[in-house]
Amino acid sequence: MTANRNEIPYKIYLTEDEMPKQYYNVRADMKEKPAPLLNPATHQPMTAEELEHVFCRELVEQELDNDTAYFDIPQEIRDFYKMYRPSPLVRAYCLEKKLGTPAHIYYKFEGNNTSGSHKLNSAIAQAYYAKKQGLTGVTTETGAGQWGTALSMACAYLGLDLKVFMVKVSYEQKPFRREVMRTYGASVTPSPSETTEVGREILKAHPGTTGSLGCAISEAVEVATSTPGYRYVLGSVLNQVVLHQSIIGLETKAALDKYGVTPDIIIGCAGGGSNLGGLISPFAGEMLRGEKDYRIIAVEPASCPSLTRGKYLYDFCDTGEVCPLAKMYTLGSQFIPSPNHAGGLRFHGMSPIVSELHHQGIIEARAYEQTEVFQAAEDFARCEGILPAPESSHAIKAAMDEALKCKETGEAKNIVFGLTGTGYFDLTAYQQFNDGTMTDYIPTDEELQEGFNAIPQFPGNEI
Amino acid sequence: MTANRNEIPYKIYLTEDEMPKQYYNVRADMKEKPAPLLNPATHQPMTAEELEHVFCRELVEQELDNDTAYFDIPQEIRDFYKMYRPSPLVRAYCLEKKLGTPAHIYYKFEGNNTSGSHKLNSAIAQAYYAKKQGLTGVTTETGAGQWGTALSMACAYLGLDLKVFMVKVSYEQKPFRREVMRTYGASVTPSPSETTEVGREILKAHPGTTGSLGCAISEAVEVATSTPGYRYVLGSVLNQVVLHQSIIGLETKAALDKYGVTPDIIIGCAGGGSNLGGLISPFAGEMLRGEKDYRIIAVEPASCPSLTRGKYLYDFCDTGEVCPLAKMYTLGSQFIPSPNHAGGLRFHGMSPIVSELHHQGIIEARAYEQTEVFQAAEDFARCEGILPAPESSHAIKAAMDEALKCKETGEAKNIVFGLTGTGYFDLTAYQQFNDGTMTDYIPTDEELQEGFNAIPQFPGNEI
């Protein structure tokens, strides 16, 4: 179902009045709920009390609530959203023309803010609840730096202190991201550092290490739990994050509804799952309630194929094995993906919500190799103008493939994908692609098996 | 005159139907016209024929036409504009709150496109007319890279070849900008190069040179005039560019009119003058026709003070002295401003249109030093979210100062400024500011006099 082509503008903007006033919790419509987080010592579900040592109170409530369908978005958060939202739902007229497809392609563009991605949607929510609880600051880790940047913007706005542990190799190789965070007033420490016990231990054991996300998480959690008035916040994977990111899907649905467009296919890239989970939440909800049927496609890199080749088991979320266990599609917390420029998709696991929806058949999954993704990114940039982030380009590649299938069949399907961010800080990767020196790598079954072997084994959680 | 505060959204977006369909040529409403370009050899006005060796035909017509008030924007250009325009007119609620000012502050944000600035508005127009003329390619120079990026996007869209000569020091220090251009298919050559006669001469004379804009212009012009089917295009200063950039001002005025807001003060940063000229064109037109009265403020860096301390004389536009003479406020074509991170404001001269409007008292001018501008940028980023370009931050500083004056007087003035772009590729500068190592420099009268001494002297053009 599509409105007249000419009636649909290049960019659909909701008015401020039309912006969502509530987050939507897709768990409320799932008969089989995502599995709860487990205490790694006892293998019992984490209690609110246990979680509140690490996370803010209201965020813990959101994390554990599988039943409430809608959560009001506080006015302060809505005011912040108005600075960079609603994000446009773009009709990709130029891409359609370039492909010669009868398909109608739409993308929800989340890159029009200084953090350059959708991460800001959850950053402001998490910072808000921390501030409301009377905390003085939060800690977090960041790899490529999108999450750290988003959180630094949110904390600057609310007047909250922020300590970021940035993976040392990124701290040195991505000085621009680091400087954005500093400009927004965050303190940025290369990880591992001498400022934490766990950091000192790691440095003693591995003097030359350039760090890892797992290590940075451990340092951030140590500082959060040992500093009065501090808590730790996380940018993906968690249920609360998918809840906040539902604003992407709600706006997308409202914009499509405004023009009477029903999508046939909805596509998102999947790393930790926060963008994909948010984008598809309201559509998956309709499927779960039996009201509608869509094809939902998660796209991941072939070098880190958690959904397409992983195991659906309880596993650690971090390499350091300090966090609770989550049931998810995982490659094992010790799996180190080969270098891939889509840093945001290099997580070994997947959001429990997205994992369970995939397990139930609501979400299908596919994987692409790096160079074909960059070719799609370049084609897209040259006709649609926007230089996409490598992560987002996985969704672009899938959307283009589906549109080309429509060209063969003559079907005028409506394809919607999430363009999560811009690639302004990923130009080292584009340079490799431009120079023809980019390579692909697909892990062998043996390499994956090695990763699976590190998954904790306990009754009901055998490989 | 202001509508109820609560009626005005954070961001005013025009609909596609409301977007301007014509450019406005402010020269048509000027009784005293900007002085014509002169042939540097004869000191006679450049003819269309002379200019057409270098520039595209229709652009030459636009360049020379002082009488036609409106030029239709071709449908193809309007379609391209729809990909990233209308740009939002943002009500700076958060900045107002932070300053505690009764003033209402608005900014027209031109940074939401991959080139990161307003340059794209003229790039697509110039590429379109080149394509329409049946040319196969264009050449240009770029310093910091915003113009080159914008032009590469426009040429990729239209299927036009592009050869960019990039100042060698920028080519090496700003590899990211270079890679964006390459991703859009442009060939990028560090200047001076061995590929042109003028480049080889310069390299022979100055073997270790890191290049200059003047040299890059000379190389680009040589290639354009010696390659069949090629012309040269320029991103600022020229009348045609101010004409294209009038879309900024027309959209701004339409958005303000929609909410019944009349600005009291309009502020823009001024380098070559294209953004400022475009932003203020429709407002200056009302002043010239005696319909309205506004305060219009041009803001420049104290290190390159063409409007506030320059001479209003005919001068070369380029250091290489190959281009026509333009009458403008100038510091002399040999003036080398001290290092200043607002690369886009380091031009020794000023658009003839802006110069003449300043001469007539329509535009006032002021200059700020670098560190106070970056302080304003940081303050702005922390409350409004957007990380501004150093150039744009000059306008931010002036808007904040005017808003603080309103705080003293209690006046609820409407202040509008142009936020020309984002600072994602300027983080080396932000790092200097964050580290406290940024310095200011104001040229002495003696240094300025040295620059003035190189201005060509002929009857009627004496210092």
Summarize the structure in short.
Two copies of one chain form a homodimer. Chain A has 18 helices and 15 strands.
The total of helices of chain A stands at 18
Calculate the mean pLDDT score of chain A and round it.
Answer: 94
Query: What is the annotated CATH architecture of the largest domain in chain A?
Result: 3-Layer(aba) Sandwich
Approximately what portion of the residues of chain A adopt beta-strand conformation? 15-25%
C-alpha termini separation of chain A: 44 Å
CATH domain class of the largest domain in chain A: Alpha Beta
Specify the structural class of chain A.
Answer: alpha/beta
The percentage helix of chain A is: 40-55%
Largest sheet of chain A: 7 strands, mixed
Quote the CATH topology of the largest domain in chain A. Rossmann fold
Tally of domains of chain A: 2
Compute the number of strand runs of chain A.
15
Largest interface: A-B, 44 and 44 residues
Function (chains A, B): The beta subunit is responsible for the synthesis of L-tryptophan from indole and L-serine.
Subunit structure (chains A, B): Tetramer of two alpha and two beta chains.
EC number (chains A, B): 4.2.1.20
InterPro entries (chains A, B): Trp_synth_b-like, Trp_synth_beta/beta-like, TrpB-like_PALP, TrpB-like_PALP_sf
